[in-house]
């Protein structure tokens, strides 16, 4: 994972390697954010800390992909924009049949290169 080492994003990938989803939390306004930045996008404070997110979220939007783009994702497959309970939205593949408003939970698959994020149905 040497190509991913960066002081701003390293905590995210380190957490991912342990199967955890980490987000930044602003110590000034309390907002959570992801992707990682050196300042808060809500109040511009640099008082940021990494916290473990619940991993739970709601599908905000989704699309079914019909074109092959990667060997590990044979089409058709569905990608969702998931709004985490903490607020940030991020993309990831979801099981077939998932639709807007469904509850999902983050899951990591460890690989030789880097952890890969996807979302499963919340139980
Ligand atoms: Zn803030």
Please name the defining characteristics of this protein:
123 residues, mainly beta, 3-stranded antiparallel beta sheet, 40% strand, globular, binds zinc ion
Fold and architecture overview:
- With 123 residues, the protein is mostly beta strands.
- It has one domain (2-121).
- It is built from 1 helix and 8 strands, in the order αββββββββ.
- The protein has one helix spanning 10-17; strands at 22-26, 32-33, 48-52, 56-65, 77-84, 89-94, 103-109, 116-121.
- The protein has a 5-stranded antiparallel β-sheet with strand order 6-5-4-7-8, with no helix packed on it. Strands 2-1-3 form a 3-stranded antiparallel β-sheet.
- β7 and β8 (116-121) form a beta hairpin.
- The longest helix has 8 residues, at 10-17.
- The chain starts with 9 loop residues before the first helix and ends with a strand.
- Bound molecules: zinc ion.
**Straight-line N-to-C gap:** 32 Å
What fraction, in percent, of the residue positions are helical? under 10%
pLDDT < 50 stretches: none
Output mean pLDDT: 93
Q: How are the strands of the largest sheet arranged?
A: 6-5-4-7-8
The dominant shape is: globular
Any ligands, ions or cofactors bound here, and which?
Answer: zinc ion
The main sheet comes to: 5 strands, antiparallel
Secondary-structure topology with pairs:
Blueprint: H1 10-17, E1 22-26, E2 32-33, E3 48-52, E4 56-65, E5 77-84, E6 89-94, E7 103-109, E8 116-121
Antiparallel strand pairs: 1-2, 1-3, 4-5, 4-7, 5-6, 7-8
The protein binds zinc ion (ZN).
């Amino acid at each position: 994972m040497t190509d991913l080492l960066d002081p701003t994003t390293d905590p995210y990938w380190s957490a991912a390697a342990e199967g955890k989803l980490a987000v930044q939390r602003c110590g000034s306004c309390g907002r959570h954010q992801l992707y990682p930045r050196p300042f808060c996008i809500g109040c511009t404070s640099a008082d940021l800390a990494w916290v473990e997110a619940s991993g739970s979220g709601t599908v905000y939007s989704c699309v079914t992909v019909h074109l092959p783009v990667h060997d590990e994702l044979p089409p058709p497959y569905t990608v969702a924009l998931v709004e985490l309970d903490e607020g940030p939205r991020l993309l990831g593949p979801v099981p077939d049949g998932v639709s807007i408003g469904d509850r999902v939970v983050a899951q990591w698959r460890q690989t030789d290169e880097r952890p890969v994020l996807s979302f499963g149905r919340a139980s």
